[in-house]
């Protein structure tokens, strides 16, 4: 195919992706999201098309900037960076133009400037040392050992067997296992060496002979070449003003030692046919750990086991004392030390002493062994050790565009591990993830062993029941996925479209012909998501305290992420604990409820409202209802949209309105909606309530008489709890006031863009 035909074909594919973004297509539309995958597959099968695709994407980006078509900038940037990570032979002029565009985009509002900064950081390194991004990605994802780049990543794929059918679980597991059979450590090391030499030497590298030589090399020799290439690339990337000539000479020496001086200087072995296209160096999918989620403690255990092989390496003294398997008692969080009043450098001399006693004298012995009287002081772990979020590690591994400076929480300890937790399912699975995340944060406040060394990233792929997309149950269970699609159009186009594809894959019979190469579409999209989805959207977690009709039963506490539904039971209070029924209240449908809530105002002032009414049920939703209610970041000034952010509950209440006419009394239903930050609801007559959390029938509470809902605060550390015992009453009141103002706990879910305004 001629160059003009190649560019025309790629141009058509890029325009198809852009048309898909611009069209107001319904969610989960058939074949949506396939254009991006097929575009990357074209370059993967023929790496020689990469420079042409980079030029086309750059032209479209510059056109979008001129015409102020911002909604295509982030998808085009992600597509461009994904191509540049795998490509070789990109000219310096293309790198320069791409970097200039990213720097110019820093003047745009968030999230465009955030994504552009992330791309600019990576481009600066790749421009100086081509092949660095590919090498670091393979080392981290495949857990290859390297002292110069010690970062490790792992993808944990969790599915709930009660929510996902066995056929879907089997199909996903088979696709993951089939892809990872070919991704042995030896194969990945060969990919790193081959890609680095191709990126540095360009056309002077005989790719076919190089790959054959690497294939025939034993494990010991392959490791030697791998470490030599990694050392050359990382040392070059760490220099402030790298010298391309010196780097090229180093890689040429490695290339000659591999192929021999004669073959390397000749370029191509005699008798070798001239290939139509150079053999490609694949970019393997990351190491994925597939797990069926059956235990709430499973997430904690998986993260601990991920860190445990390296638990005794590169740790400071403070972390060596931590136990990964259990909890530290509160008393161990504070230690007693002696606060000396001397300098600690010179011996304390008696007042008026002018000269030291003789070394053998009793005075000298007394001076050496005894210090001045100190006071006992209780030392608390500093508050800085109780982080509020799990951001990515800094430096070489930082790929999110966030400012560095928080990656080293303790001296000598940095976040070398990244756990990418990916859950499949619907809103019920996200409710389980929120509970596991809350348990994890509570444990970290007591132990603090994962946070200093682990970056936790959360991802979500909706897999709904195979019903008609227009069915009410189908839409009800996919509310959070629909919100993510409205907030991030690239998530809608790339991830929300996986649902029908996953069910279609599960229905297909397994292929008996193992010699046939099949493109793993689902695995490719998952890989693209966990690599490029670096911008989180934070969701408020709400806590609910539940009181039951049985006074001997202790109140229960739980959390929810998306929804709390309240239904009126047919049963009533027992006679011994029934509440007094109001006189004059006519018997009718529903129950008499007392509501006390904090009304959400534009001014963010506190206004408490108390009301009594009869209702047949109510629903508390934590997600905005439509496109006009997409949340703004917390740093934005208060506007009308601020009422519908993640810190606001939307309460829909079905009220019973009584009316009297000639035919007698009648009742009508009216739906009232209001927004609140917290709410308390109590049944005033003999009706009991049933609570359903996050649409999950396994999280149902019956025989409820009262419940309270509020934003879930960040868990307090054990040190802070123990500290209250040593404070005065005034200090305890101040501490309680500070605790009431704690930052609420929010769970991040990664998308490609974050919230696009």
What's the SSE blueprint?
Blueprint: H1 3-22, H2 34-45, H3 50-67, H4 73-86, H5 92-104, H6 112-128, H7 132-141, E1 152-159, H8 166-181, H9 185-201, H10 207-216, H11 219-238, H12 244-259, H13 261-266, E2 288-292, H14 298-307, H15 317-320, E3 334-339, H16 362-369, E4 375-380, E5 417-425, H17 427-446, E6 454-462, H18 472-476, H19 479-487, H20 489-494, H21 498-507, H22 521-532, E7 535-540, E8 542-548, E9 556-560, E10 563-572, E11 591-599, E12 608-621, E13 649-661, E14 664-683, E15 687-693, E16 700-711, H23 718-723, H24 729-740, E17 746-751
Parallel strand pairs: 1-2, 1-5, 5-6
Antiparallel strand pairs: 3-4, 7-17, 8-9, 8-16, 10-12, 10-15, 11-12, 11-14, 12-13, 13-14, 14-16, 15-16
Helix pairs in contact: 1-2, 1-3, 2-4, 3-4, 3-5, 4-6, 5-6, 7-9, 8-21, 9-10, 9-11, 9-12, 11-12
A few lines on this structure:
With 757 residues, the protein is α+β, with helices and mostly antiparallel strands. Helix content is 38%, strand content 20%. It holds the Pfam family PI3K_1B_p101.
Q: Key features?
A:
9-stranded antiparallel sheet, 17 strands, PIK3R5/6, 1-phosphatidylinositol-4,5-bisphosphate 3-kinase activity
């Amino acid at each position: 195919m001629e160059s003009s035909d190649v560019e025309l074909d790629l141009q058509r594919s890029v325009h198809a992706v852009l048309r898909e973004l611009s069209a107001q297509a319904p969610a989960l539309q058939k074949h949506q999201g396939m254009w991006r995958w097929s575009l990357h597959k074209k370059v993967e099968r023929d790496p020689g098309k990469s420079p042409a695709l980079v030029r086309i994407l750059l032209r479209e980006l510059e056109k979008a900037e001129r015409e102020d078509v911002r909604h295509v900038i982030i998808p085009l940037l992600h597509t461009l960076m994904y191509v540049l990570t795998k490509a070789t032979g990109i000219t310096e002029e293309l790198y320069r133009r791409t970097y200039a565009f990213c720097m110019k985009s820093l003047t745009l509002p968030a999230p465009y400037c955030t994504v552009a900064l992330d791309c600019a950081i990576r481009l600066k390194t790749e421009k100086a040392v081509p092949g660095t991004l590919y090498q670091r990605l393979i080392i981290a994802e495949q857990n290859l050992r390297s002292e110069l780049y010690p970062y490790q990543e792992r993808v944990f794929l969790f599915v709930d067997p009660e929510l996902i059918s066995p056929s879907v679980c089997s199909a996903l597991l088979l696709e993951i296992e089939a892809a990872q059979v070919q991704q042995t450590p030896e194969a990945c090391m060969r990919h790193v060496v081959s890609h680095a030499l191709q990126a540095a030497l360009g056309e002077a590298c005989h790719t076919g002979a190089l790959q054959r030589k690497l294939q025939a090399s034993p494990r010991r020799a392959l490791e030697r070449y791998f470490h030599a290439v990694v050392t050359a690339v990382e040392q070059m990337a760490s220099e402030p003003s790298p010298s391309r000539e010196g780097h090229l000479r180093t890689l040429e020496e490695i290339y000659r030692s591999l192929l021999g001086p004669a073959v390397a200087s000749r370029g191509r072995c005699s008798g070798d046919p001239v290939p139509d296209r150079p053999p490609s160096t694949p970019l393997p999918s990351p190491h994925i750990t597939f797990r069926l989620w059956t235990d709430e403690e499973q997430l904690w255990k998986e993260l601990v086991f991920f860190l445990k092989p390296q638990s005794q390496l590169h740790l400071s003294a403070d972390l060596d004392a931590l136990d990964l398997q259990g909890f530290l008692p509160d008393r161990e969080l504070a230690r007693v030390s002696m606060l000396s009043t001397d300098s600690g450098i010179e011996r304390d001399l008696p007042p008026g002493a002018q000269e030291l006693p003789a070394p053998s004298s009793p005075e000298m012995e007394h001076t050496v062994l005894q210090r001045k009287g100190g006071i006992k002081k209780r030392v608390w772990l500093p508050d800085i050790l109780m982080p509020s979020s799990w951001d990515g590690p800094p430096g070489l591994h930082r790929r999110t565009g966030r400012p560095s400076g928080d990656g080293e929480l303790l001296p000598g300890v940095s976040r070398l591990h990244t756990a990418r937790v990916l859950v499949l399912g619907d809103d019920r699975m996200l409710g389980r993830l929120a509970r596991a995340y809350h348990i994890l944060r509570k444990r970290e406040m007591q132990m603090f062993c994962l946070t200093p060394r682990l970056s936790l990233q959360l991802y979500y792929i909706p897999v709904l029941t195979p019903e008609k997309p227009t069915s009410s149950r189908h839409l009800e269970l996919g509310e959070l996925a629909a919100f993510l699609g409205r907030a991030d159009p690239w998530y809608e186009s790339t991830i929300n479209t996986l649902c029908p594809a996953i069910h279609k894959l599960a229905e297909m019979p397994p292929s008996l012909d193992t010699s046939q190469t099949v493109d793993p579409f689902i695995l490719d999209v998952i890989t693209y998501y966990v690599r490029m989805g670096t911008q989180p959207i934070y969701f408020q977690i709400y806590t609910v305290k539940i009181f039951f009709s049985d006074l001997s039963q202790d109140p229960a506490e739980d959390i929810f992420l998306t929804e709390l539904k309240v239904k009126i039971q047919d049963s009533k209070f027992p006679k011994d604990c029934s509440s007094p029924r109001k006189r004059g209240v006519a018997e009718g449908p529903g129950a008499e409820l007392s509501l006390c809530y904090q009304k959400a105002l534009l001014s963010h002032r506190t206004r408490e409202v108390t009301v009594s009414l009869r209702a047949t049920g109510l629903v508390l939703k934590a997600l905005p209802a439509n496109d006009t209610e997409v949340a703004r970041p917390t740093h934005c000034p208060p506007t009308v949209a601020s009422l519908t952010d993640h810190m606001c509950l939307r309460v829909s209440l079905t009220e019973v309105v009584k009316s009297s006419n000639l035919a007698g009394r009648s009742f009508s239903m009216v739906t009232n909606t209001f927004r609140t930050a917290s709410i308390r609801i109590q049944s005033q007559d003999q009706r009991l309530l049933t609570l359903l959390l996050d649409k999950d029938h396994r999280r149902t509470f019956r025989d409820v008489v009262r419940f309270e809902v509020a934003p879930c605060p960040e868990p307090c550390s054990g040190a802070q709890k123990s500290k209250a015992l040593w404070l005065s009453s005034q200090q305890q009141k101040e501490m309680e006031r500070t605790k009431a103002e704690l930052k609420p706990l929010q769970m991040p879910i990664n998308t490609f863009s974050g919230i696009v305004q």
